[in-house]
Amino acid sequence: MNKKGTVMLLLCVIAFIASIMIFYSNAPEKDSNEFYLGQAEIEVYNTYQQGENCLYYLDLAAQLSADQVTEGTSFGNIFVGYLDGFNTACNSSFELSDFSITVSNTKVVGESAKDIEFNEDNYVYKVKPYFEVELGVAEVQF
Length: 142
Known about the structure:
By secondary structure, the chain is α+β, with helices and mostly antiparallel strands. It has one domain. The protein has helices at 3-26, 39-67, 75-90, and strands spanning 99-103, 107-112, 116-119, 124-127, 130-134. A hairpin with a 4-residue loop joins strand 3 (116-119) and strand 4. The protein is rod-shaped and about 100 Å long. The relative contact order is 0.14.
């Protein structure tokens, strides 16, 4: 090799080592609370998952209420008990009057004009509660 090639190779190696040192000296510590790549997306996804868990809880509460209906009880009376647990689990304040519940021979449909809100630092995520339950053989009273 000639001297010019050796000098260029030496300069590239020194620049490469210097760039690695600069990169690692400016990189945040692993345990620091600084913002990291993808943190906002993870927070949004976790909030979305909380909303889906609340909707799933509501669906199961409606299904269990429909399954427990007998001639002496109504869907609304049973659903109120599950609604209290829903309010506790989802930090909400829904009442039976917040839902418009339609009962037919084959299904029960309930929806609310009131939203479930998740207030985070940079955004507010809203979910509209809705459930639709297929009924068994017996008719449901409201």
